[in-house]
C-alpha cells in the first residue's frame, strides 16, 4: 500500500493499522501525535485505526527541553 508519510510517498508492506505502521517505521508510539488525512487520531485508536492505500499520514514526535 502506498502512503504519504510526512510528505514522502512510501510503500508499506505489512502494516494495516496505525500501531503496525509505527512499529514498521520503528517509532515508539508513546510520544507522538498522528494525523491521517488531516484528522488527529487518538492514541487509544492506534491499534484499531485501519490505513488505506493513498492515505496521508503526518507523524510528529514530542521533544522535551528546558
Describe the SSE topology:
Layout: E1 2-5, E2 8-11, H1 18-24, E3 32-36, E4 39-41, E5 56-61
Largest sheet: 5 strands, mixed
* CATH homology superfamily: Beta-grasp domain
Percent in strands = 25-35%
Tell me the Rg in angstroms. Answer: 11 Å
The CATH topology comes to Ubiquitin-like (UB roll)
Uncertain residue ranges:
none
Number of domains: 1
Structural classification: mainly beta
Question: What is the ordering of alpha helices and beta strands?
Answer: EEHEEE
Q: Which architecture name does CATH use? A: Roll
Strand order, largest beta sheet? 2-1-5-3-4
User: In DSSP terms, counting alpha (H) and pi (I) runs of 4 or more, how many helices?
Assistant: 1
Q: Helicity, in percent?
A: 10-25%
Number of strands: 5
In the CATH scheme, the class would be Alpha Beta
Spatial gap, N to C terminus: 40 Å
In one word, what is the shape? globular
Short characterization:
It contains 1 helix and 5 strands. It has 66 residues and is mostly beta strands.
Architecture overview:
The chain has 66 residues and is mainly β. The chain has one domain (2-61): Ubiquitin-like (UB roll), CATH 3.10.20. The protein has one helix at residues 18-24; strands at residues 2-5, 8-11, 32-36, 39-41, 56-61. The protein has a five-stranded mixed beta sheet, with no helix packed on it. A hairpin with a 2-residue loop joins strand 3 and strand 4 (39-41). The longest helix is centred in the first third of the chain and has 7 residues, at 18-24. The model has no long low-confidence stretch (mean pLDDT 93).
